[in-house]
């Protein structure tokens, strides 16, 4: 009775520098009856963007001596910007699930972020043959 989705990423990896760029992304979601398509699409785009950031750039650095976060603000924490994010295609599967509630509404919430990082990591594996299971996927992890 929960929402579910499937996400697919296409990446390009520079063979010399191991820089990874997401060139295409598709997310398909079944989240019950969508009451407002514009806000649902915005939620999906935001979650996918956060997932791409999680996969490729976002990392919290801890000082081993003090245990404090060394990059605690947005000036030092690397996050994706518009130039880092490709065109994203969102698909909403129409479903009439009256078992969940009379309106057939389910939550979209953070569903789009869940599979985005995994989709990018899987695309990197297909492009390089290297399976990275520790995020973010940095050039050092590709150039082994």
Tell me what you see in this structure.
It is a single chain. The protein is an alpha+beta fold. It has helices at residues 37-56, 111-128, 139-142; strands spanning 4-13, 20-30, 88-92. Strands 1-2-3 form a three-stranded mixed sheet. Strand 2, helix 1 and strand 3 form a beta-alpha-beta unit. The longest helix has 20 residues, at 37-56. The radius of gyration is 17 Å and the shape is globular. The model has no long low-confidence stretch (mean pLDDT 93).
Task: Describe this protein with a few key phrases.
single chain, 144 residues, alpha+beta, 3-stranded mixed beta sheet
Number of helices: 3
N-to-C series of helices and strands: EEHEHH
Mean pLDDT: 93
Approximate helicity band = 25-40%
Walk across the major sheet and give the strand order: 1-2-3
Question: What is the strand tally?
Answer: 3
Fraction in beta strands: 15-25%
Biggest pleated sheet: 3 strands, mixed
Q: Supply the helix-strand structural class.
A: alpha+beta
Coarse morphology: globular
**Radius of gyration, Cα only, in angstroms?**
17 Å
Low-confidence residue ranges: none
Separation of the first and last Cα atoms: 43 Å
């Amino acid at each position: 009775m929960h929402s579910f989705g499937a996400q697919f990423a296409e990446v390009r990896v520079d063979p010399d520098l191991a820089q990874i760029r997401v060139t295409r992304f598709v997310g398909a979601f079944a989240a019950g009856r969508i009451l407002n398509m514009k806000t649902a699409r915005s939620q999906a785009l935001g979650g996918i963007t956060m997932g791409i950031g999680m996969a490729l750039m976002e990392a919290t650095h801890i000082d081993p001596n003090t245990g404090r976060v060394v990059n605690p603000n947005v000036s030092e924490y690397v996050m994706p910007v518009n130039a880092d994010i490709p065109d994203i295609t969102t698909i909403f599967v129409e479903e009439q699930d009256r078992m969940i509630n009379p309106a057939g509404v389910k939550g979209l919430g953070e569903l789009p972020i869940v599979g985005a990082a995994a989709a990018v990591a899987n695309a990197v594996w297909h492009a390089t043959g290297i399976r990275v299971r520790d995020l973010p996927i940095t050039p050092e992890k590709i150039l082994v």
